[in-house]
Amino acid sequence: MKDIVQTDSAPAAIGPYSQAVSFGNLVITSGQIPLTLGGDLVEGDIAQQTEQVIANLKAVLAAAGTDLARVVKTTVFLADMNEFAAMNAVYERHFPAPYPARSTVQVARLPRDVRVEIEVIAERH
């Protein structure tokens, strides 16, 4: 049975989707972009945007009863693969070893023309 995860500690969904869904012992998040709780876009560089994305992921995962240490898979969407190293430096500070599996892809465009979007799959505690 799937359960919808919703928290006021992360930006609300801006479309017909859930912040995350839990299914059994897994939590699957929707992609998070660098929006603040008030719905404002973080306009900074890729590092600043990645920090906000990860803060949003932490909040959604906490609402589901888990955290970044229990993430088993991430997918990172970048508007520009030339910003990979800067994104990766922030990512590495937040995701502890043993690291989750990861895919990183450059896409033609992201919602609200952000530089980064990340989605994760995590185990529940």
How would the global form be characterised? globular
**pLDDT under 50 segments (min length 5)?**
none
Q: What is the number of beta strands?
A: 6
CATH topology: 60s Ribosomal Protein L30, Chain: A
Report the portion of residues in β strands.
25-35%
Structural summary, described in words:
Pfam families: Ribonuc_L-PSP. This is Endoribonuclease L-PSP. The two termini are 17 Å apart. Helix 1 runs parallel beside helix 2. The protein has one domain: 60s Ribosomal Protein L30, Chain: A. It is of the alpha+beta class and 125 residues long. Strand 4, helix 2 and strand 5 form a beta-alpha-beta unit. It is 23% helix and 27% strand. The protein is built from 2 helices and 6 strands.
